[in-house]
Design goal:
Radius of gyration of chain A: 17 Å
CATH class of chain A: Alpha Beta
Distance between the termini of chain A: 24 Å
Helix content of chain A: 25-40%
Number of strands of chain A: 13
Mean pLDDT of chain A: 93
CATH superfamily of chain A: Vaccinia Virus protein VP39
Oligomer: homodimer
């Protein structure tokens, strides 16, 4: 496929995603996607004819990877930061995915007002992990907003996810294990039942640093904890399983 | 130490625990302890001068192993089934541990009435895992009572644990991962904050079949998910870590 010429702004670069020839525009001085986005897009299932939304999409990495990895019908990315949303929209155009992916600038806290109740089969989210905003020096920086709960809390994300999902719709979230109790409690509060969980361990003898969760709106209690995902065989060498994501 | 002569009842046998020369009386036709008890007694911490109680102690395996593995001052085992409680008491006598371990026949549901509020530093429990009692053919059998919530529910165990624990006291529980959401939710309901969790995977590429949890009465939210505990290197061969338990 012939790619469009696209103008990169200062400090921006175009990175090859190694999937379907897709690329993404990123600014390494602001925020670049991490392995979290890759793992979440590999864990989430979007089936034929299903529509999905990514809450806090940043530069659009999740919808672009989901479009490559799943058979979903349509993907939406919601992002509050104008600069990131603009980069995401340009990446979508660059990959000629305007028919499949829509980037919307807006606030997660109002997501169900923007898109309407019960309007998606799938919600994905890689929300800010940290709830320690008080000590932040520059809470307005894109990196701070992406990593800390400056503009939205875990509860905001889960509440809006429930509202956006159809009955039996699925939420896929990646988060930090140390907040697992709060995540489960808040999901249940909003009738999202955690059904599947995979812990991500950097090495086989280390503590997990990420957790992948699938929750179902109105699902019945019964959690399937899956085999561990070990990221590295040894320093710098990924396990085979990672390449499957 | 000279062991006492002890009379074994029909079908009973005396098993060597490979710890301090301790033995345990078991009846293989009724119920024998499993790896769960070994893992729980290795996970639980009982410090000098602390007193601990094991809820649903069966043949007393947990208090006996805890006496061997920790520096705790005193251990109590509560068991509702007279036959199991009797075996446990005889094992305690056989090991000459009457000064350190007390076996009490009684119901978990009344534990805080029997022992009083805030009377222990540590509670351990390896409760029935299954909440599917309706289809049980012989719910009165010792094995059914040990494995299924015939005589007490998860909520009974957690509620009584909170009542028995001093402020900042610790509950150690082993359970099935598929009930993790309910476990966390019920612990929080009774002000027991899950602080530490270790998933037990039979093999590195398999789903976990057990979970070890430490919860603190009145603890602050923040869960430490620990490195995975892998039981087998290959079929029939334990990993080194298991020998540490």
């Amino acid at each position: 496929m012939q790619k469009l010429n696209i103008k990169l702004l200062e400090d921006e670069r175009l990175d090859d995603l190694q999937r379907n020839g897709y690329h993404i525009i990123q600014n390494p001085n602001k925020f670049c996607f991490g392995i979290d986005a890759v793992l979440l897009s590999g864990y989430a299932k979007v089936k034929e004819n299903e529509v999905a939304i990514d809450l806090g999409t940043g530069t659009g990495i999740i919808p672009i990877l989901l479009e490559a990895k799943t058979c979903g019908k349509h993907f939406t990315g919601l992002e509050i930061q104008p600069e990131s949303a603009n980069m995401a929209a340009r990446s979508v155009r660059y990959n000629q995915l305007e028919d499949k992916i829509n980037i919307v600038e807006g606030d997660i806290k109002n997501a169900s007002e923007i898109f309407g109740l019960s309007s998606f089969d799938v919600v994905t989210t890689n929300p800010p992990y940290m709830n320690d905003c008080h000590g932040l020096k520059n809470p307005e920086l894109p990196k701070a907003i992406a990593r800390h709960e400056v503009l939205c809390t875990l509860e905001d994300v889960i509440r809006e996810s429930t509202r956006l999902l159809k009955s039996n719709g699925r939420l896929y979230m990646i988060h930090r294990p140390h907040r697992l109790v709060e995540i489960f409690e808040t999901m249940r509060k909003y009738k999202l039942e955690p059904k599947r969980m995979k812990l991500v361990y950097p090495f086989v003898n280390k503590e997990p640093n990420m957790v992948l969760i699938e929750a179902i709106r109105g699902g019945r209690p019964m959690l399937k904890v899956e085999s561990p995902l070990i990221v590295y065989k040894e320093k710098g060498i990924y396990t085979d399983e990672i390449y499957g994501f």
